Amino acid sequence: MIPGLDPKLGQQLAFIMELDRLKGILRQTRVLDAARQENSAEHSWHLALCAVVLAEHAPGGIDLSRVLKMVLVHDVVEIDAGDAFCYDADANVGKEERERAAAERIFGLLPAEQANELRGLWEEFESGASADARFAVALDRLQPLLLNFGGEGGSWRQHRVTHDQVMVRMAPIQQGAPELWPAVVRLLDEAVARGYLAPAPGSTA
């Protein structure tokens, strides 16, 4: 709580200041020029712009304002829980428990009504419980694909990720943004052809 302020405003400002810590959470995905890893705050901002630009490819009935809120808060829990690389099974052990504890603390900084709203949107994103959430999740899968492709393999090369692993990771795009799926398949095929991404084991590609 910030002394001398209206209590509700004090809670809101404390939450906003806490979110600055997301700028220090590094992801495995690198920025396009490969100079450094992107951070989780940049990732969330990039997803929000993806939602605005690609909204016309969303299934009918999507509420863009809800999608924007989801993508802006979906990684807030990484302030406490860190970013677990999606292709590292060991790093993902206990991830759900860590993130739920983080959600309790971080959203709990807000006044109750806002805390319930934003945590509810976070949980909706995590469960993919609505068309809005599924579109948001689809964008969350698409964005690192674009950075890895544009960065000539990026973290795919660094961690020896294979085509079949990425296809599994991208699968939610088929349901959340089916109009984008053909582009995903084409990009991954091209990534293998260019040597950015290892073919599936046993593949003749």
Low-confidence stretches: none
DSSP, total strands? 2
- What order do the SSEs take from the amino end to the carboxyl end, as H and E? HEEHHHHHHHHHH
What is the CATH architecture descriptor?
A: Orthogonal Bundle
User: What is the mean pLDDT?
Assistant: 95
Q: Briefly, what CATH class?
A: Mainly Alpha
What would the CATH topology be? Hypothetical protein af1432
Counting DSSP H or I runs of 4 or more residues, the number of helices is: 11
CATH homologous superfamily grouping:
Hypothetical protein af1432
Describe the oligomeric state of these chains in a short phrase.
single chain
Report how far the terminal alpha carbons are from each other: 59 Å
Class from secondary-structure proportions: mainly alpha
Biggest sheet descriptor = 2 strands, antiparallel
Tell me the count of domains: 1
Strand content: under 5%
Q: For the largest beta sheet, what order do the strands appear in spatially? A: 1-2
Give me the Rg, rounded. Answer: 18 Å
Helix % is 55-70%
Polypeptide structure, described:
The chain is built from eleven helices and two strands; from the N terminus they run αββαααααααααα. By secondary structure, it is mainly α. The protein has a single domain (7-194), classed as Hypothetical protein af1432, CATH 1.10.3210.10. Strands 1-2 form a two-stranded antiparallel sheet. Helix 6 crosses helix 7 (131-150) and helix 9 runs antiparallel to helix 11. The N and C termini lie far apart (59 Å). The mean pLDDT is 95.
Task: Annotate the secondary structure layout.
Layout: H1 7-19, E1 26-30, E2 37-39, H2 40-53, H3 64-73, H4 78-81, H5 95-107, H6 112-127, H7 131-150, H8 154-158, H9 163-170, H10 172-176, H11 181-194
Helix pairs in contact: 2-3, 2-7, 3-6, 3-7, 6-7, 7-11, 9-11
